Amino acid sequence: MVSMSKNTINLLIVLANPRGTNSLRLGTEDRVIRQSLKLSRYRDNLSATFCHAATVHDLRRALLEDDYHIVHISGHGTDSGLVLEDDLGEPNFIPPAGLSELFKAYSPPIRCVILNACYSISQGELISMEVPFTIGMEGAISDVAAIEFSRGFYDAIGAGREIDFAYDEGCRTVKLAAPNTQFISKILKNTQHELVSIESTHSPKPEQLNLCVVDIGSVSPPSSSIGNAEVRFSITNLSGQIIKLTSITLEILAAEVCTQIEYPRVAAPIDEYFLHARLNPSTNKYELLTQHHEIRERTEGFFLKIDAAEGFTYTLQLNILWNFLGGQRMLISSSPFKITFPVQSAEGLLRLAEESSRD
């Protein structure tokens, strides 16, 4: 088993063609993936483990033994599940719910699951609830299309591109090299665990990808007209090194007048490390971090309290600048999220009544 080293993206390639099923060119797919990685610009930053004639226990033990960022499964699939092998090489249909639970337990570090098999999109929809990116196939796909997709996908990964770009490159490669073959694919993105692009002044290298992730956990509206909205989010450090947060910025993407009315309720007290922002529709960016902050552990939670005048709905986004100690700064952003500050005070209700009467 390949051990994960610092600044390495680990790939687990699982291949299965049980006895009694149509023959697949998995040896060719293995060779194509190895070739793409060997010829890539950042080959020294990529490590791949190949598992042939794979059983579900081979998959499970591989995930136990090492940390993988991309898991690729090639073989047969049906509406009932993916088909791996049993201990005798016979077909073993893997329950989609069980496979989803397995990947949930290992994400992070898993950022992408590729199901390069027929009818795999139904399994992908379950798995996508647990990992940031899932790639599946709708209906039957041809052997040559599956191989060409892998070629294009890993060419892009080896060039330091993001997962969604690599998916598009895989599809483009199928259209160029296997234009008349059966192939309909889909990429599913989990907005709650989405890994967004890392921006820098140079083309991103693999060691800059997938190493720092911001995850919006929950968003709660204010509990009273003078209460705070509450946002829980976490930042996950997958690099194996200490990283330094140099800036956390809350950005207003949109502000809309809201006439929603709610009556006050009591909020349970929460004793957590927290950040604070006071919103104003005329200002669109708020610096939340007052000093540099190191993340040594894999995941660190943050609790953000936001207050604002009632009667507005804000669309917000968190922007985090980070770097390895002494290294170049990089940017990650959260998925956009909305918070409504409904009208709850007596003054607000009177104002709404006056505005309504004028209309």
Structure description:
The chain has helices at 26-38, 56-65, 96-105, 121-127, 143-158, 163-177, 346-358, and strands at residues 9-15, 46-51, 70-74, 76-78, 81-85, 91-94, 112-116, 133-137, 185-189, 212-220, 229-237, 243-257, 274-278, 285-287, 293-295, 299-307, 312-324, 330-333, 337-341. It has a 6-stranded mixed sheet with strand order 2-1-3-7-8-9, with helices on both faces. Strands 12, 14, 15, 17, 18 and 19 form a 6-stranded antiparallel sheet that branches. α1 runs parallel beside α5 (143-158) and α3 runs parallel beside α4. With 359 residues, the protein is an alpha/beta fold. It has 2 domains: 9-189, Rossmann fold (3-Layer(aba) Sandwich); 211-348, Immunoglobulins (Immunoglobulin-like), CATH 2.60.40.10.
Quick take:
By secondary structure, the chain is α/β, with parallel strands linked by helices. The chain is built from 7 helices and 19 strands. A hairpin with a 2-residue loop joins strand 4 and strand 5 (81-85).
Kindly, what is the distance between the CA atoms of the first and last residues, rounded to a whole number of angstroms? 71 Å
Envelope shape:
elongated
Number of helical segments with 4 or more residues: 7
Unreliable residue runs: 1-6, 193-210, 261-273
CATH architecture of the largest domain: 3-Layer(aba) Sandwich
Number of strands: 19
Describe the biggest sheet? 6 strands, mixed
The number of domains: 2
SSE run: EHEHEEEEHEHEHHEEEEEEEEEEEH
Which percent bin holds the helix content? 10-25%
What is the average of the pLDDT values? 78
The CATH class designation of the largest domain is: Alpha Beta
Q: Can you tell me the CATH topology of the largest domain?
A: Rossmann fold
Beta content: 25-35%
**How would you classify the helix and strand content by structural class?**
alpha/beta
| Rg on CA atoms, Å | 24 Å
Looking across the biggest beta sheet, what order are the strands in?
A: 2-1-3-7-8-9
